[in-house]
Design a protein that fits this description.
- The structure holds 3 protein chains of 3 kinds.
- Helices cover 74% and strands 0% of the residues of chain A.
- Chain A contains 7 helices and no strands.
- In chain B, helix 1 runs antiparallel to helix 2.
- The longest helix of chain B has 26 residues.
- Chain B is flat and about 55 Å long.
- Classes of the chains: A mainly alpha, B mainly alpha, C mainly alpha.
- The interface between A and B is large, with 50 and 50 residues.
């Protein structure tokens, strides 16, 4: 914390500063530092949240390696997964660009990037929903219609693993991707709000931490997927 | 503190291109029969590289304050504790000798 | 203190209390002091609800056959006692009430970094608490507060999911409080308040907040998996379907052991403030106490396996966890030695908060030392799941945390309300709590060592004498807890006006009127020296010019 910078809002008139500066802070630098650090602390929490489920997954992955590999090989769609990963990486780029434009005070470009991000997020969710539907129609959803080996499979002779162990894979598949999708939906909500605020001209070169912090959240959601994709789709 | 990112638009595009290239590589690597262990190492290494790129450039950890870096490292360290010690337990149970801990469940009895 | 006579001018007109009186002004407040009060009211309620469960348990255990309630009811009672006391009283106890109220003032800040988040965390807490209470009255839950699988996920036919959701939701209130504290401590310290000048209360809360932030999400996701397993009949932790119940224990204790330190670290922070004030001495070994808080926060995450010595954990894992559990005693002992050294040659006065501190130091030491018994692999096999461990963790949690909580309430009560309570009756209650506590729980060490298992509704007749002693102690304890409720409430209207600094303490929070104004300080304070300068004539704090 820089003591010298306190109490000086060089670039802003007093009125502007009072509108965007919360009463508990001395100046915008302090406010920005707090919100930025707060977001990172929250992301550390999120990391441990996914981390708990991932630990459980890794334990079972090491013990039921064959069943998990078979489930991934025979029932996961690599094309859809790859497209979705690409879509998500694109959305991370648009978010990064959005923050860039926000920091340069370019409102229209910021709004465009935010809308692009929301669009990509919805595309991801649609593809994910398609995958869920396919898995449902293949009777692979534990708790709803899990039946193994499924009736319709091109190579039933390859499905040699113990059904409960394959079911365990799908428990974690739906749990992890479901939590991830939930975070995406929350992200869409956050970005819709941010877009609306940007539309009303609330952000400027001096004040754009909400854009930056929601961007960090979005990158984190992307990070989770970067690990889920190989763990669930690629480890044969 | 919390200086505006010095990362330029060009850097973002470069990082994005790298991420897409890594995505293609990791998918292709899946279809090469390395044997499962090497396959896992390759896939996870690529994932870690991708994640590092996102954290460093998209999330501006490169050029951010030391404190923010400490937050990131702390999160990773705690995750390592959780995973490391839990797995250490499973892999040091001599009576398992690589078998799942649940083989003496009711269905086998 | 008696030296300050009544002076109406000492009571500020624009305090955080009398700035507005409507219900709405309380329920929608963003003031950390008012949120602290909201928490205080809520957790006092939970404390007495949990206490009622405990009372029925102790009454039932007066006779070996357990004549008062049925077996099933007994199982639900000890479960609900555990759930309510752990998740809805002990974890929020000191941080969410005293911490919320005092922490920003100690930093010389106007509020926490995220006041809205702070209010949100109270609402989340209330939602979680309400869900769990609904579960309690609509059928209860009988898994024990630990929710061990597969009993919780497959076999129990009580309200497991609802209770678990309540605990899950409440976890987020704890996370948000921890996040708020960490960011506030990092970014909102008053000018001159460097890390080495921070009160040790702040260090302790910082360490506890790390655990809240990095441990709580793991138990949250674990509870979520249990709920999913139960609702969708999955096999995540069910051995019949390939799952491993021991994995649940790993994930559960990864949080729930450090959670003990979420409770005890803030309690230790309170002790530092009180012990220096009432022995009029600088703290002994400031750096060691601060560092030991952080060491506890870190090492606490490496010891969870000592709950699993008899759960088919790896032998090597057991040995490592045993060693690390011994290790965590070192920073705790450092604190106790430093408090003792602080007392040495101090001019000690026996005000109520100090009585609780003496209670804390003694009982925490006893609880900590018996913890070493339990960390020893061989001995743990003998006393595992007996009343020995029940006594051990009650010495830490009631003898430690609740003592410190009561001490904190009495220490900061004049600051919070601007009023003094009646000293003699407060001392009487403190002594009653100490005596009642020991009579309740010391016999449990013996009866546990003799082999009485915990969570049993009936027991062999030869254990009855010790159990009757325990129940007798519990009734003294119960009276001891009700008395403060009465005289503290009474003091709100009839207590003597306290003035800004009745204890002549050095903390920044005492440099402002009692009750403080909404913005805490009329002028931002400037700190010029370390805390606890009780040996100096004038404390190195003051309003900036």
């Amino acid at each position: 914390m820089d003591q010298a910078s306190r109490g000086s809002n060089r670039d802003l008139s007093r009125l502007e500063a009072s509108q965007i500066l919360a009463h508990q802070f001395d100046d915008l630098a302090q406010q920005k530092e707090a919100s930025n650090l707060g977001t990172w602390a929250f992301l550390a929490t999120e990391l441990m949240f996914f981390g708990g489920a991932l630990t459980a997954f890794v334990v079972y992955r090491t013990f039921y390696a064959d069943a998990f590999a078979q489930a991934s090989r025979e029932h996961m769609s690599i094309p859809l997964g790859t497209i979705n990963t690409a879509v998500l990486l694109c959305s991370s780029l648009t978010v990064a660009m959005g923050v860039h434009y926000a920091s340069h005070g370019q409102q229209r470009k910021l709004i465009f990037m935010l809308l692009a991000t929301i669009g990509l997020a919805l595309a991801f969710l649609c593809i994910k929903a398609t995958e869920y539907y396919i898995e449902y129609s293949h009777q692979l959803v534990p708790g709803l219609n899990f039946h193994y080996p499924p009736h319709h499979h091109a190579h039933p002779e390859r499905l040699t693993a113990s059904p409960p162990h394959v079911e365990l894979f799908f428990c974690f598949y739906f749990f992890l991707t479901g939590l991830h999708a939930l975070h995406m939906i929350v992200g869409v909500g956050i970005f819709s709000f941010i877009t609306w605020k940007a539309w009303r001209g609330k952000y400027s070169e001096q004040y754009y931490n909400p854009v930056e912090c929601s961007g960090l959240y979005w990158h984190f959601v992307d990070l989770v997927w970067i690990f889920l994709f190989p763990l669930l789709y690629l480890l044969h | 503190m919390s200086t505006p990112p010095h990362i330029t638009k060009t850097t973002y595009f470069k990082v994005f291109a790298a991420l897409m290239a890594l995505l293609v590589i990791t998918v292709i690597a899946t279809f090469i029969p390395w044997g499962s262990r090497i396959g896992i190492v390759i896939a996870m290494t690529i994932a870690i590289v991708k994640a590092t790129l996102v954290v460093l450039y998209f999330m501006h950890i490169k050029g951010s304050s030391g404190l923010t870096k400490v937050f990131v490292v702390a999160g990773l360290a705690w995750l390592a504790i959780l995973m490391g010690i839990t797995l250490a337990d499973y892999h040091t149970r001599p009576w398992l000798s690589g078998n799942p801990p649940m083989t003496i469940g009711p269905q086998e009895r | 203190m008696t030296s300050i006579s009544y002076n109406p001018a000492l009571e500020p007109r624009d305090s955080y209390i009398n700035i507005a009186y409507t219900v709405k002004s309380w329920l929608l407040t963003k003031d950390h002091k008012r949120i602290g009060i909201l928490y205080l009211i809520a957790i006092t309620g939970f404390f007495f609800i949990g206490g009622v469960f405990a009372t029925i348990i102790r009454l039932d255990l007066m006779t070996p056959q357990g004549d008062l309630v049925s077996d099933d009811t007994y199982n639900k009672l000890f479960t609900l006692h555990g759930v309510v006391m752990v998740f809805f009283f002990l974890i929020p106890s000191i941080p969410a009430t005293i911490g919320n109220f005092v922490l920003p003032m100690m930093l010389g800040a106007r509020d926490l970094a995220f006041p809205r988040l702070n209010l949100l965390s109270w609402y989340i807490f209330m939602v979680g608490g309400t869900l769990s209470l609904i579960a309690a009255v609509t059928g209860g839950v009988d898994t024990g507060w630990t929710f061990y699988t597969p009993y919780s996920s497959v076999f129990s036919n009580t309200r497991v999911v609802l209770t678990a959701v309540g605990v899950f939701v409440t976890g987020f209130s704890s996370i948000l409080t921890g996040l708020n504290f960490i960011i506030t401590i990092h970014t909102m310290r008053a000018p001159g308040l460097t890390w080495r000048r921070l009160p040790l209360f702040i260090w302790a809360h910082y360490a506890a907040s790390i655990i809240m932030l990095l441990g709580t999400p793991v138990v949250a996701v674990t509870i979520l998996m249990v709920a999913a397993e139960r609702i969708f009949k999955l096999g995540v932790f069910n051995p019949a379907l390939g799952g491993d119940p021991v994995l649940f224990q790993h994930l559960f204790w990864f949080y729930s052991h450090p959670a003990v330190y979420i409770m005890i670290l803030p309690a230790m922070g309170v002790i530092n403030e009180i012990v220096t004030c009432f022995s009029r001495k600088n703290i002994f070994g400031y750096t060691f106490i601060a560092a030991s808080s952080l060491a506890i926060a870190f090492i606490s995450f490496l010891v969870w396996g000592h709950h699993m010595f008899v759960s088919t954990q790896s032998v090597y894992g057991g040995m490592i966890f045993s060693f690390l559990s011994f290790l965590v005693a070192v920073p705790s002992a450092i604190k106790v030695f430093n408090w003792t050294a602080t007392l040495y040659k101090g001019s000690i006065s026996f005000h109520t908060p100090m009585l609780y501190v003496f209670g804390f130091i003694g009982l925490f030491t006893l609880g900590g030392l018996t913890g070493l018994f339990l960390a020893a692999l061989g001995l743990d096999v003998h006393v595992h799941d007996t009343y020995f461990i029940v006594a051990h963790f009650h010495y830490i949690m009631v003898g430690g945390v609740v003592m410190a909580y009561m001490g904190a309430i009495h220490f900061w009560w004049p600051k919070i309300t601007g009023r003094m309570y009646t000293e003699w009756i407060a001392r009487l209650a403190a002594v009653m709590i100490f005596l009642g506590f020991n009579l309740t729980f010391f016999p449990q060490f013996i009866v546990g060592y003799l082999g009485m298992p915990r969570r049993y509704h009936a027991y062999p007749p030869e254990f009855q004498v010790l159990n009757v002693m325990s129940t007798a102690g519990a009734s003294i304890l119960a009276v001891g807890y009700v008395i403060p409720l009465i005289y503290l409430t009474w003091s709100l209207w009839h207590g003597k006006i306290a003035g800004p600094n009745p204890w002549k303490a050095t903390g920044l929070e005492w440099q402002t009127p009692s009750p403080p104004p909404t913005e805490n300080f009329y002028e931002t304070p400037v700190v010029t020296g370390p805390p606890y300068q009780y040996h100096l004539e004038e404390v190195p704090f003051g309003p900036s010019k």
